[in-house]
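step=encode ok
step=design start
structure_in=
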């Protein structure tokens, strides 16, 4: 897949830095704003594809439509790895120390994501089927519990999680704006999909000995649905509207899926508690 080479001039670096600061600042401000919002609103925002979205927008600013579509396909292929990563983290959350838990989870994610994205012509359809199968299988490792509600204390405090997500978004914008051409669609997609922000959240839960970790990790697993929706929409919309418009418009179906997921989850939790 051909990629446009980026000449690293001073104006380009300055423009990229400005984009990174804008993206990171936007994410930070948004998460701070929803910190005191109703739990359903906060839960929806926390499951949105911030880092992947700004990463693909950064690619779209410099790379061809075909490059972005290829990267979105690789991102879809890596989604089962994210499900496995969350389930594995939940399984060993109380059994391992924080350093061992982080290393194990990230190595497991990286290994599986690399294998999956290396499968030739996996295609969006098969990638979605594999993600669905991974979600079903993950329930055996980390059972779904409708009673694990994102109440205000659990869903809120988004502001505490804002800075690592904002920093990752900014770094991803810089790297993918300047070096996506050298990395190629596969590595660019994996960089955008790297669950580093989730690791920071998990570290915070582990260090604070928070009892909210099951509900938080359950939310992280369900976020796979909005991530998948974003990547699917990106593939279709980029082909229709072009790279930049497509990657930005793909947020709309992702937001809709995130809101629907949270609404259904809350309804199930109310039934389980009634």
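sequence_out=
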């Amino acid at each position: 897949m051909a990629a446009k080479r980026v000449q690293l001039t001073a104006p380009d670096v300055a423009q990229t830095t400005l984009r990174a600061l804008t993206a990171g600042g936007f994410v930070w401000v948004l998460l701070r704003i929803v910190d005191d919002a109703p739990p359903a609103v906060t839960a929806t925002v926390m499951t949105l594809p911030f880092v992947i979205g700004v990463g693909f927008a950064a690619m779209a600013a410099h790379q061809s439509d075909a490059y972005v579509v290829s990267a979105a396909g690789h991102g879809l292929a890596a989604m089962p790895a994210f499900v496995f990563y969350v389930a594995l983290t939940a399984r060993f959350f109380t059994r391992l120390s924080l350093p061992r838990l982080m290393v194990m989870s990230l190595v497991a994610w990286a290994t599986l994501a690399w294998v999956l994205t290396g499968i030739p012509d996996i295609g969006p359809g098969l990638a979605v089927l594999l993600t669905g199968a991974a979600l079903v299988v993950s329930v055996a490792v980390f059972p779904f519990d409708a009673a694990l509600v994102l109440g205000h204390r659990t869903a809120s405090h988004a502001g505490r999680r804002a800075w690592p997500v904002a920093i990752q978004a900014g770094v991803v914008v810089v790297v993918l704006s300047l070096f996506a051409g050298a990395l190629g669609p596969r590595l660019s997609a994996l960089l955008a999909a790297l669950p580093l922000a989730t690791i920071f959240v998990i570290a915070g839960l582990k260090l604070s000995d928070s009892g909210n970790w099951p509900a938080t990790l359950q939310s992280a697993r369900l976020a796979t649905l909005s991530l998948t929706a974003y990547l699917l929409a990106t593939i279709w919309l980029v082909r229709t509207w072009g790279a930049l418009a497509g990657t930005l418009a793909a947020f709309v179906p992702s937001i809709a899926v995130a809101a629907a997921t949270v609404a259904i989850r809350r309804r199930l939790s109310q039934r389980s508690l009634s």
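step=design ok
step=annotate ok -> The two ends are 54 Å apart (CA to CA).
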